[in-house]
Specification:
heterotrimer; A alpha+beta (309); B mainly alpha (382); C mainly alpha (408); B: 382 residues; mainly alpha; Cytochrome C3; three-stranded antiparallel beta sheet; two-stranded parallel ribbon; 15 helices; 28% helix; 7% strand; extended; C: 408 residues; Formate dehydrogenase/DMSO reductase fold; 16 helices; 71% helix
Chain lengths: 309, 382, 408
């Protein structure tokens, strides 16, 4: 019995050490986070985009990805099928038919939306993905283990993976030109090159004002919705459009709740479980042990009784 | 005591009035003011006391369109866009050619969304610099140019290639090349002829012929091209690349441009058995007399409104006419002294000036006009 | 084969006794060439070839390399199916130690070995699947993503491997004949069990909680805020079925390693486990119905995904539930054993539906997995089987060690 009690105490000690983990997860699962106040973002005015794909070129140029001469980007045949981001392209432009005017198809630039509370960052078990106060969701390749949970978690299908890199594969996605905007004081490469300035870079709070004003001043041209203002709890890329967003391949079923909230309930349960369950199970064990002891005692006393007379 | 109460009451009602009036003023704020809640007055207004009549606005930022008709001839023939020449060779923009192209559309306003009377400010006057990081609302010069050019060109040629407009700058070349515009000057868009009329044979038995008097609509009813040619674009006339198949128009679509004005439900107005003549005012049941014939339609049918049937009562238009101001002799009948002082309705019963005047109001001997005349007939006949 | 690797400096007589099962080296090698071993060896050779390819040319060379569907067969089988099947360990652990149902003790050791191997091989699958496998300990020692469910899963898998190893220690030390270590290991077994049960409860549900982050991607019939509960409850009957299935196979194919005592008790214990499984299956079915009602997804049942869901729920949950009950009532051990295998397929189907088939269901084109992935999975399962056999052949798992008889 005494031996087993010691074992039990050891178990308690082990529980103590895990509740350390528990404390951290509690800190994560705090009240709603309103977002960094001065975060940057980009407003994509979809009707202004002419599908020239210069942003794709500039992005590859900036991020040192395999690139082709800028003239080749005039090729319109790539629009035949819908493309997504991959390990060698952080941004792509897709074409959608325009219900209002067949002659002018709608072009939509697609890249990481830099969520205010990113699902990918909350999925990452080594904190390789992080939301910076500047707004960018950045990736640290030095700790990434390559589990690709971020890709499963991302509601927009953004992160891509270097599947053909055998031993040092990285998760790849738009960085919002983090180095460029923080160290050089520049604007993102795609925004800079955009000839029609369909992309506007600035403080997210300012961009929302600009977007509202555009919608209000041209009621026929825009639908009254800023995509990214509330979606998944807010994103740093914002979009305004002339046609409903579901016609442009935007997921409209993502809700307005930040994704980390989805697992918050479970994660707060974990430390509680780590403390309560051992106590409960230890209790069961003690009952069982006691019952065994009782049956043993009864057996010995009855034996004694039999032998005494 | 009474005096105090009275003063108090007056003051109270005055202040109430003031509140109401001020509130009214607040209510009637220009919609633009809502957009610039953070701006100070001087951000937009040059003078200290802007009024509705003279808002003394700065030329930018401009959110609302302001368009006064200009002709292509007013503008320059060639504009050289060299503000961003550190990146590209200057773009030689055939301004006049493009201005002529817009004549089927909204005219200068296709590009110049702020085109007041007189001097039209060029793009760079408001859109300075390649980017405008200070005011995120306003595109920089680069954006302003490209939005204007690409908006049509992508539709026109389905190409967004830089080389369409830009010669790539050779790296290392410092001196700016002399711009040669000789190949552009004198090249104009051919005059878009306005057809006289169009006769359509349609599949409608009761009236298989529809005659559309195009010239009448343009010249008499002063419709602008864009009022009917709504989806006009360059590529509509110019075959560039493969043209997408246009879907056959539905009956609704066919009638749409007409029924916006011709609201009556009678088919026979357009659908006839044979070709019809152009518009004459007589067709409306009112052949115009020599004075009215000279007038433009819009002298009577007010500008900016639909042309509708007018009241034939003279003073419906000539509201200032009365016994003293109207010189009856212009009608071909100079009234004698007795009749000159009489009221119009004494003879023209119920103001029916188009009908024969009656003498029965004063004379009960059964005399009739014009056998017995109230004056002398002059040469000019009504 | 794994056996030869065990080169050691210890006297040959020891090696012969402990590793070669009393045979000489030559004799042992000769005895290895059985049809089963040859087939297994061939599978492993092909599989190892592809594993080498994976480590030289990247995951893209053996999988579809889809950015849309980043998780494939390695995780669907290795982690999401492997872990619930490894639940055998904690289910039997709590039955015997915590609830004091001592009569199930003969099944405890195999269950713990199942748990140990289940987790060890889950980790092995991760090593194949992870981009940088040597960074597997990073969440433990380098960078802590405490807000992630996967962080908790990583810790749990690691701790489970360690704890199940600790629980297996008595068997190992009995085999090695080290009495002192055996007694020391026995002392911590109860603590380890309590810890394993605690962690398993949370961690089986954590595997489900991983998908809480995919509300738009996972088909609504499988996505539910109760998915952690579903995963936990289904892991119980998965574990129970695994114990029945394992005992069936061992008592049939490894008869000589099984004690007469075990053989005699087995039918009665199987019926007991079957009864429990039936009850848990019924609970699970009820919970799933509540899940559907909660999400108002009845209309989705009449779609192709709905049919798949109905197959899973009716053929692989409700049917085994009744078959177990029927088998127990008629004391048909054979039926209970058959149903156990059936249930295992059902659990696997559920985990595949959640982690592979129902995930990204809205995407127009997707390939679920590459055949090379399948070969690698089969290879690793084969290795797992061989190791299990290796252990059972040597250690007192299904029998009591003659020296320690009645000393548990």
């Amino acid at each position: 019995m005494s031996i087993n009690r010691r074992a039990f105490l050891k178990a308690i000690g082990a529980i103590g050490s895990t509740s350390l983990i528990g404390r951290h997860s509690k800190a994560i699962a705090q009240e709603h986070f309103p977002g960094y106040p001065d975060r940057f973002g980009v407003l994509h005015d979809i009707p202004l985009c002419t599908g020239c794909r210069k942003c794709e070129w500039a992005c590859k140029d900036q991020n040192k990805l395999p690139n082709k001469p800028i003239e080749t980007y005039d090729d319109k045949s790539v629009f035949e099928k819908k493309r997504r981001t991959d390990a060698e392209s952080y941004t792509v432009v897709n074409r959608y038919p325009n219900p209002k005017d067949k002659e002018k198809p709608i072009y939509v630039k697609f890249q990481c939306n830099h969520c205010d509370e990113p699902a990918c960052a909350s999925a990452c078990l080594v904190k390789a993905l992080k939301k910076t106060p500047e707004g960018a969701v950045t990736y640290n390749k030095d700790v990434c283990i390559g589990c690709r949970y971020c890709m499963t978690a991302c509601p927009f299908y953004v992160p891509a993976y270097e599947y053909h890199n055998a031993l040092t594969p990285e998760v790849r996605k738009c960085t919002l030109c983090y180095e460029r905007i923080t160290k050089e004081g520049e604007i993102p490469a795609c925004v800079k090159i955009c000839p029609t300035q369909a992309l506007t870079f600035g403080k997210r709070s300012e961009l929302i004002k600009v977007a509202r004003e555009k919608i209000r001043s041209k009621p026929g041209e825009y639908i009254d919705h800023i995509y990214g203002k509330h979606e998944v709890g807010g994103t740093c890329w914002l979009y305004i459009s002339g046609v409903p967003f579901e016609q442009l391949g935007f997921p409209t079923d993502v809700g307005t709740k930040p994704y980390p909230e989805l697992t918050k309930g479970f994660l707060t349960m974990v430390p509680a479980g780590v403390v309560i369950l051992p106590a409960l199970l230890g209790g069961f064990y003690m009952f069982t042990k006691h019952r065994e002891q009782m049956t043993k005692d009864e057996a010995t006393t009855s034996e004694k009784k039999e032998t005494q007379p | 005591m009474l005096k105090i109460i009275r003063t108090f009451t007056i003051l109270l009602s005055l202040s109430f009035l003031a509140v109401v009036v001020l509130g009214e003023i607040r209510e009637r704020k220009e919609p633009a003011h809502e957009l610039f809640q953070d701006a100070t007055c001087s951000d937009c207004h040059i003078c200290f006391t802007p009024s509705k009549k003279d808002p003394c606005l700065r030329s930018c930022p401009r959110l609302s369109k302001k368009v006064i008709a200009h002709s292509p001839e007013e503008g320059p023939e060639v504009v050289i866009l060299n503000q961003l020449e550190d990146l590209f060779e200057p773009v030689i923009f055939a301004h006049k050619l493009h201005a002529q192209m817009t004549q089927m559309g909204e005219g200068c306003a296709v590009c110049h969304h702020y085109a007041p009377a007189g001097h039209i400010p060029p793009c760079r006057e408001c859109h300075g610099g390649p980017l405008n990081p200070v005011d995120l609302r306003q595109p920089g010069l680069k954006g302003a140019y490209h939005r204007q050019c690409l908006n049509c060109h992508r539709e026109w040629s389905h190409s967004t290639a830089c080389a369409v407009c830009h010669a790539k700058k050779t790296p290392g070349e410092l001196a700016i090349r002399q711009v040669d515009t000789t190949d552009i000057v004198g090249i104009y868009h051919p005059h878009i002829a306005v057809p006289d009329k169009r006769v359509y044979q349609v599949n409608y038995k009761k009236g298989p012929v529809v005659t559309f008097h195009h010239k009448d609509h343009v010249e008499l009813f002063d419709l602008r091209c864009v009022d009917c040619h709504r989806e006009q674009s360059c590529s509509r006339c110019h075959e560039i690349g493969e043209k997408p198949e246009r879907a056959a128009k539905t009956p609704e679509e066919h009638h749409k441009p007409c029924i916006s004005c011709h609201t009556m439900k009678t088919c026979s107005i357009c659908h006839t058995q044979s070709e019809t003549e152009g518009f004459t005012h007589a067709r409306t049941g009112w052949p115009l007399n020599r004075f009215h014939q000279e007038l433009k339609c819009r002298s009577c049918h007010l500008m900016g409104r639909k042309i509708t049937k007018l009241d034939r009562d003279c003073i419906a238009c000539h509201s200032s006419w009365n016994t003293e101001t109207f010189n009856h002799s212009v009608t071909g009948l100079a009234l004698d002294e007795i009749h000159q002082g009489m009221d119009c309705i004494d003879c023209h019963l119920d103001r029916r000036f188009d009908q024969k005047p009656s003498c029965a109001n004063c004379h009960d001997d059964g005399r009739v006009y014009p056998k017995s005349s109230p004056g002398t007939f002059t040469e000019e006949k009504w | 084969m794994t056996e030869q690797v065990k080169e050691t400096y210890i006297a040959p007589s020891w090696l012969r006794e402990k590793v070669f099962m009393g045979m000489t080296f030559k004799e042992y090698i000769r005895r290895l060439f059985t049809p089963f071993n040859i087939v297994a060896g061939l599978i492993i050779l092909v599989g190892l070839y592809f594993i080498v390819i994976r480590y030289t040319q990247g995951l893209g060379a053996v999988t579809h390399a889809s950015d849309n569907q980043p998780w494939g067969l390695f995780l669907s089988w290795g982690l999401f199916t492997g872990i619930p099947l490894a639940a055998a360990g904690y289910v039997l652990g709590s039955t015997v130690y915590l609830f004091g149902l001592k009569e199930y003790r003969p099944l405890l050791r195999p269950a713990i070995i199942l748990g140990f191997l289940g987790y060890l091989f889950a980790a092995l699958f991760l090593l194949v699947d992870l981009g940088r496998p040597w960074r597997l300990p990073y969440p433990m020692f380098v960078s802590y993503g405490v807000g992630s469910v996967l962080f908790f899963v990583a810790w749990s898998v690691t701790l489970h491997v360690v704890l199940y190893f600790v629980e297996s220690c008595p068997a190992i030390f009995e085999w090695l004949g080290s009495d002192r270590f055996r007694r020391w290991a026995l002392k911590v077994t109860v603590g380890a069990t309590i810890f394993v049960v605690t962690l398993s409860t949370l961690h089986q549900s954590a595997l489900g909680a991983l998908f809480l982050l995919s509300p738009g991607k996972l088909h609504p019939l499988w996505y539910s805020q109760f998915i952690p509960v579903f995963f936990f409850v289904s892991s119980i009957f998965a574990g129970l079925s695994m114990v029945i299935a394992e005992s069936t196979l061992t008592s049939r194919y490894l008869k000589h390693r099984v004690s007469a005592h075990y053989q005699a008790k087995l039918p009665e214990l199987t019926l007991g486990l079957g009864k429990a499984a039936s009850f848990v299956l019924f609970t699970y079915f009820g919970l799933k119905i509540i899940g559907i009602a909660h999400g108002h997804h009845w209309n989705l049942l009449n779609t192709s995904y709905g049919y798949l869901f109905l197959v899973e729920m009716i053929i692989f949950v409700l049917l085994p539930c009744f078959l177990f009950a029927f088998g127990v009532r008629n004391r048909s051990v054979g039926l209970v054993r058959f149903t156990a295998f059936f249930t295992i397929i059902g659990v696997a189907l559920n985990r595949f539906n959640v982690s592979l088939i129902g995930l990204n269901w809205k995407l127009p084109h997707r390939e679920l997995f590459h055949w090379k992935e399948f070969v690698i999975v089969i290879t690793i399962i084969t290795i797992e089987l061989l190791i299990y056999r290796w252990i059972v052949n040597r250690m007192p798992v299904h029998r009591e060690h003659p020296e320690y008889k009645g000393m548990h």
